[in-house]
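(Structure overview)
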Amino acid sequence: MKVRINVKWEQHKLGDFGNVQMNKRIFKSQTLDSGDVPFYKIGTFGKKADAYISSELYEEYRNKYPYPKDGDLLISASGSIGKIVEYKGQRAYYQDSNIVWLDHDNRILNLFLKAFFQIVKWSGTEGSTIKRLYNKNILNTEIILPRIKEQTAIGKLIEKFDYLITLQQRKLEQLKQLKKAILQIIASNRLLLHTKKVDMIKVRVADIYKITRGNVLSRSEISNVRTSKYPYPVYSSQTKNHGLMGYYKDFLFKNAITWTTDGANAGTVKYRKGRFYSTNVNGVLLSSEGLANQLTAELLNLVAFKYVSHVGNPKLMNNTMGEIIFNIPRSVETQQYFSVCIESVIDLIGKQEKATDKLNKLKKYLLQKLFI
């Protein structure tokens, strides 16, 4: 059934434009890693190959089973439902958890269809534990469709957003790699400062820090915004927004290192500059000699995850943290010098994350206005 919205946009079901075909599971585990043809499955769909198969096997199965042709869209049908790859003749095989979009006879453009697939909420997905997208789910999905000229303009706009977001994400990843490289060079004692090798020492956490813990604080007592009455940041174990929960009227610590003691983020180490409040899911390291700084926190973070216990709920408790040994510059002045350098990179990372997030939100807003 077709419902005319206006003279330019019409409502259809995707099944009005063609058909879909689900690829079948055809490879046994022993056939993988035996060649040079990329093999993809759920999770990494369309990104880095999970394994490789021989050219002979690839040719045998692409001739034996339905296979995409140039321009077809592949949709991840299980796990992370909705990931899209446009098939452009690449030598690659996508396992049965992906659906191939076939024969949409040029009435709907791939550029527009890909934009739609980024915002669509698939209905009728089935499965008690793992949701699965079947052919009928796609065929019965409704879409409001403009003429080809408008499809082209909309598709190119979203494609440009995707390109800009990719560039921003690449820049963000480069900044993160830069920070990681600097820290690894320092930790491995390969750094020169003013042409002289930095004097590094091995230290035990319990020997240089006072080890304590944050306090329980009800969410209802925390302000979402900083005010004169609630000036002090409150940090928890979450990684979103760098663990910032909100703001409180009192503080517990000043210029200290926190780490997540238990849960999914156990072992995550952060430097907290200035006065702050920490919840009880954080352990806290204090130093009256200035040894709690951005650099030492980052160097400790490089190794702390190795000491997390994964028996049941992940944990890194005070006694275990106290036994961790790691490398730091002997001189506090040197630590402070490199702390400033690391803080500069972290600041750039934060700005880049905001720029990337802003683009993603703008793109999402446009897609919602177009398709919802």
Q: What stands out?
A: Residues 148-187 form the longest helix (40 residues).
